[in-house]
Structure formats: C-alpha cells, structure tokens
Specification:
Blueprint (H helix, E strand, L loop, with lengths): L1 E7 L2 E10 L4 H14 L2 E12 L1 H17 L3 E4 L3 H10 L9
Parallel strand pairs: 2-3, 3-4
Antiparallel strand pairs: 1-2
Helix pairs in contact: 1-2
C-alpha cells in the first residue's frame, strides 16, 4: 500500500492506494496516529483503496478513537462501493465520519 501525505493549513490528508490488510495496516498505524499530534483535522482519502481486512478496520477504529481523545476531527472520503459494503456489514458506517 502507498500512503500519500498532504499537509495544508492544519489539515493532514492521507491518501491510501492499494490494500489495507494485515501486512499493510501497521504502516498506516505508524502514519495515522502521529498525524493527530500536529493537525487540526485529519482526512482519509480512500479513492484508490481497493481492499480492507479486519486488521485494516482495527486501524481505522484506532484512528477514530484517537480523533475523539485528541479532539481532532477525522473524516473518511471517496469510499468505493465495495469498501462501503464492508463498512456497512461491520457497522463501521455508523462509527466513521464520512465526507
């Protein structure tokens, strides 16, 4: 998975490209949690994400919990139908904040 990081005006955008699974989720965790330290807003752009496993869902949940703890909003945008179906089946569509 490729993670493109863009910082602009207090907003950090992480664009995910590829698969978010047991192999790649630690890489996202290493980038996502520190993003809350210096950003006023964190956005996850899933335009190019084509797969998410339970390990990937765990990292997204950790990001959402960190968002609430740090009082730094996190949103998820550009979710494909396939990924949204996973979010719906697992209840994540009620946990994550979508743009």
């Amino acid at each position: 998975m490729i993670i493109d990081i863009t910082k602009e005006g207090g907003k950090t955008t992480l664009t995910l490209d590829g698969r978010l699974d047991a192999t790649t989720s630690p890489k996202l965790l290493e980038v996502l949690l520190p993003a809350f330290e210096d950003a006023a807003f964190v956005k996850l752009d899933l335009t190019k994400l084509n797969y998410v496993s339970s390990a990937g869902l765990r990292v997204l949940l950790m990001g959402q919990k960190t968002s609430k703890t740090k009082n730094t909003p996190m949103t998820v945008s550009c979710v494909s139908e396939d990924i949204m179906e996973v979010f719906d089946m697992t209840g994540f569509s009620n946990v994550l904040v979508f743009e």
